[in-house]
Amino acid sequence: MDVSQYLEIFLDETNEHLTNLNTRIMELESDPENMDTINEIFRAAHSLKGMAGTMGYKRMQNLTHDMENVFSEVRNGVIKVNSEIIDVLFQCLDALEEYKDNIQGSADEGTNDNEPIIKMLNSILNGSGAAAPAKEAADKEAAPSVQETVSNKWDHVMLDDSQVNVIREAQKQGKKVYGLNVMVQESCILKAARAFLVFKAVEEQGEIIVSDPSAQDVEDEKFDRDFTLIIFSDAELDDIIKASEAVSEIDKVIGAELDLSNNKNVHIPAEEEEAPAEEESGEEESATAVAAPESAPAAAPAAKAEPKKQTPAKPVVNRTVRVDIEKLDSLMNLVSELIIAKNSLVSVSSQEQTDVNSAFNEQIEYLESVTTNLHESVMKVRMVPIESVVTKFPRMIRDLSKKLDKKMELYMTGEETELDRTVVDQIGDPLMHLLRNSADHGLEPAEVRIQRGKPAVGSIFLDAYQEGNTVVIEVRDDGNGIDVEAVKQKAIDRGTITVEQAANMTDKEIIDLLFLPSFSTAKKVTDVSGRGVGLDVVKSMIESLSGEVEVKSKLGEGSTWTIRLPLTLAIIQALMVVVGEEKYAISLGSIQTLEDVPASDVKLVQNKEVIHLRGTVIPLIRLNEVLDVERKPTDDENLIVVIVKKGDRLAGLVIDELIGQQEIVIKSLGKYIKQCKFISGATILGDGEIALILDANTLI
Amino acid sequence: MELSINSNQSILEEEKNRSVSEPIQFIVVRLGEEQYGIDIRNIDNIVKMQRITHVPKLPAYLKGVINMRGEVIPVLSIRLKMGLADDEITKATRILIVKLEEEGNVGFIVDEVKEVVTLYETDIERISSDITQDRGSLINAVGKHNGELISIFDLAAISLEEN
Fold first, then answer.
1. Cα-Cα-Cα-Cα dihedral sign, residues A270, A276, A282, A285
2. Nearest to A192 by CA among A287, A54, A86
3. Which H or E element spans position B47?
4. Structural domains for chain B
């Protein structure tokens, strides 16, 4: 069968399972007895195996199979988890990751059999002595309970008169009529395809009289995990079962010769049989819930409401749809258009200042609130928790801890903080750089830490939270902090700055030198960090996401790296201003205050204009000069100054006129115009005019 | 040998026939006293002159951006680009929205849009590169229509131009 169309789903889900496994195995290491964790791991490994098998990735399947065996032993209490096993398991995950990467690149899993890992897994299994029998016992234990729950499903199938006649006729002719119940594996993602193969296999041996759910429903995947067939055939039951079970991802096929007298649905008027059927299906539900503890018990009563559906309850979780990000983008574009249209209505209504249109204004206000809500909803759809990115970090820190021979712990909070999907996809690498940086450069070796009176185990913190319109991600460590003098010396040695410059620079300015390309203070180059590529890459990646990064550090106490990212990339709240004849938008996120400053308050410091505001000296930037526009001649003595901030730096932008706050849609200036760096895009105003968006960050 | 010549001739014959049967339509615009043509298939729209939002730090011929049905489109002055005097905005001034392959839509300011003419390949004369040098490499052919000459823009040259 051609499975290429499922490749994307496969990759997606493999990713999910691998992340899940990574997290759970970490948990398992700290809490080896936790049955929930072990079950969860077992399930994830099992699903992985099933999926790899379906897609025909044999090596991947083999590896997960052996892995699953180990988990199964752990679950049965035969093997006790120790750090050695955990190490091997992590190696497995890495190998699986490698398969996944290969498949992603070339749709082929590659040729690495990973035999050493499989051997290690087997030796763990063999080390546990009674491994194999125990597993079989477990299997057998599970089997009868399943058998019981579904054994006589075919006796519950609704048969109409003509079908009963067909069955009787067949029996008269000496053919055997069987009831079959086919269970599909829980992990199976192509149920319809599997079912189809079973149908085909059965039809080779006989003829299907009835299928429950109907063949059409089965084809449309309208069944849970099992379906029931009534067939007649000349062949032996065992052969039919064998043929059906040969289809991959089929969990179990059970069957028996059909005895019509057992079927309570035959010759009973429809209304009367309703009640008993409901009772039975209820019993079945509870039986299934016992056999498979993972299907939420809460689902059972829900299923009772649909008595005719005699399938195990489906846990009512995760009502989600996977949507192509492009579709969301186009939806987002439409919302943007709508907001522009709304803005133009607003501007038309404000021009016509008559009382007659108060109803009109009311409607516009209503429209405004609807579009705002619509925008928010679409934004929310695009938001994903940063969890998907950060869950791999505990594992990374654990590996680093071993590699660097330093003891360290990672504490994370705010994994549920949400960001735009495009941002989340790209934030992983910068964060990884920062964490590695903290682990390698930040934290001191244990001896030094003890000497300094710190706990021997170093701590790294990753905190994420939302702050107004931005999301803040902090990477913090309690290590050595940044040695400003060392950075200064290094910069002088490298000729980045002169001795005189160095003398005039603040500590903060010197620390900022770290973000320059090829600047590394590590005395020792390791393969973890310290090649001098990193911080500058971090900075440029964050800035490409319209974010910013800054660092605070105290020598001997540790450093904090703070990343600030905008919640959304497409629509922002902005302050509209006028400079000369043109209108400009400044993102509200970077604005601190608006000030009315008398022209006489402007002072010159080092030949640059500054103002003194509540104890701070703030440099002034005359926007008309930067933007090459003529200032409007005014006789007003006062300057209107927009105070913008970048990190803790402030600057005052001198503008001609304020318009007010507005929600704007960011548009690109197109490829033909190479943007100058302080214009981050353009937006279309309500009257159809274009205003450029100023990027205050680059002006400061 | 003879056969190949024959077939060559028939190809030429065919070529001629086809070009006769597939005329190209050009939008004729006026810049100063001269007429220029642009292949109509590359034109997205023609709009009246409107306020152009100035974008700082750009070469003089890039006048700024306008809003075309929600899209931000750069506008350039063909006059400045060709080294002529700056545009004089009159009632006849129009912006031609031209589709460029790489960069998307771009607006050209022209003094006037005159008409649509149909030219056959036989009416069009490709001109050699040394003449095109003088015109700032924007023209690659001249068409003849009713005894008048129409210079035809080479859009590839405009789009390739670094700015």
1. negative
2. A54
3. strand B43-48
4. 23-160 (2.40.50.180)
Asked if the Cβ–Cβ distance from A672 to B103 is below 8 Å, we say yes
Active site residue A485: no
Lookup: tokens for A62: 């083999």
Burial class of residue A126 (count of CB atoms within 10 Å of its CB; 0-12, 13-18, 19+): exposed
B54: contact with A, CB 8 A cutoff: yes
Give how many domains chain A has, as a whole number.
5
How many whole angstroms separate alpha carbon A591 and alpha carbon A645?
Answer: 6
Question: Mean pLDDT over residues A588-592, rounded?
Answer: 86
What is the average pLDDT across A3-14? 75
Reading the block at residue A356, the tokens are 């007659």
- CB within 8 Å of chain A, chain B residues 67-96: 67, 70-74, 76
Question: Given CB atoms, is B100 within the 8 Å cutoff of chain A?
Answer: yes
- For residue B95, name the pLDDT band (cuts at 50, 70, 90): very high
Query: What percent of chain A clears pLDDT 90, i.e. is strictly above it?
Result: 6
DSSP A575-613: EEEEETTEEEEEEGGGEEEEEEEEGGG-EEETTEEEEEE
Q: Model confidence over B115-156: pLDDT tens digits?
A: 899 888 888 888 765 554 554 567 888 888 888 888 888 877
Residue with structure tokens 């065992």?
A238
Domain shared by A373 and A401, yes or no: no
Backbone phi, psi, residue B129, to 5°: -65, -30
Task: State the CATH number of the domain containing residue A467.
Answer: 3.30.565.10
DSSP H or E stretch at residue A238: helix A237-245
In the predicted structure, residue A152 carries a pLDDT above the cut 60: yes
Highest mean pLDDT among A64-68, A141-145, A153-157, A297-301: A64-68
Mean pLDDT taken over chain A:
76
Predicted ipTM > 0.90: no
Cβ A229 vs Cβ A183: under 8 Å: no
Residue A136 lies in a domain: no
* Pairwise CA distance, residues A523 & A505, whole Å: 23
Tell me if A314 is assigned to some domain: no
CATH number at residue A11: 1.20.120.160
Q: What angle do CA A332, A334, A339 make, to 5 degrees?
A: 95
What percent of chain B stands above pLDDT 70? 78
Query: What is the average per-residue pLDDT within A423-450?
Result: 85
Q: Chain A residues contacting B, CB < 8 Å?
A: 336-337, 340, 581-582, 626-629, 667-674, 676, 679, 682, 684, 688-692
Residues A413 and A371 grouped into a single domain: no
Q: Two tokens at A385?
A: 């928790």
Q: Is residue A181 part of a domain?
A: yes
Preferred mutation among B47, B65, B77, B100 to probe A, highest tally of A CBs within 10 A: B65
